[in-house]
Amino acid sequence: MNLESPKISVEKSAQHLFDSLSDVKNFEKIMPESIAKFQVIGTDAFIFGLKGMPEIKLQLKEKIAPNKIVLGAASDKLPFTLTAKIDTVTENKSDVQLFFEGEFNAMMAMMVKGPIGKFIETLAGNMNKL
Question: Which GO terms describe its molecular function (predicted)?
Fold first, then answer.
């Protein structure tokens, strides 16, 4: 299952966004208001939980400065990645888009598609808080 957020323009440099997203504790700033739990569990991982959904542990998997950051599920039960693609527009303006890729059975995909789509849309929309 592949989902993508709308492309969001942010009044920050690509390097600033890259540096901010490279520090996992900053993800708390862009989480939806419905967040029930956020806990940093290392320099490259955090656990978060949204109301009504199971907790998810995310870990930094790949960083390509200043354009790409890949987070992945730390559990093999629900294998997925969340990729932030950052494009420089000007020195102080960037476009950010999030891509979710997961391997789920058809039933699971049907259940999580809506909530995950809304989740990545919210994360992207909150990028200006970084």
Answer: glycosyltransferase activity
Q: What is the DSSP letter of 78?
A: S
d(CA 63, CA 97): 15
Q: What is the pLDDT of residues 8-48, one digit of tens each?
A: 999 999 999 999 999 999 999 999 998 999 999 999 999 99
Rounded-to-integer distance, Cα 90 and Cα 103, Å: 36
Q: Confirm if 25 and 43 have CB atoms less than 8 A apart.
A: no
CB 40 within 8 A of CB 26: no
The CATH number given to 2-129 is 3.30.530.20
pTM of the predicted protein model: 0.94
Alpha helices by DSSP H, listed for 34-74, are none
Each residue of 50-83: pLDDT tens digit?
Answer: 887 889 999 999 999 999 999 999 888 778 999 9
CB 126 within 8 A of CB 8: no
Q: How far apart are CA 76 and CA 78, in angstroms?
A: 5
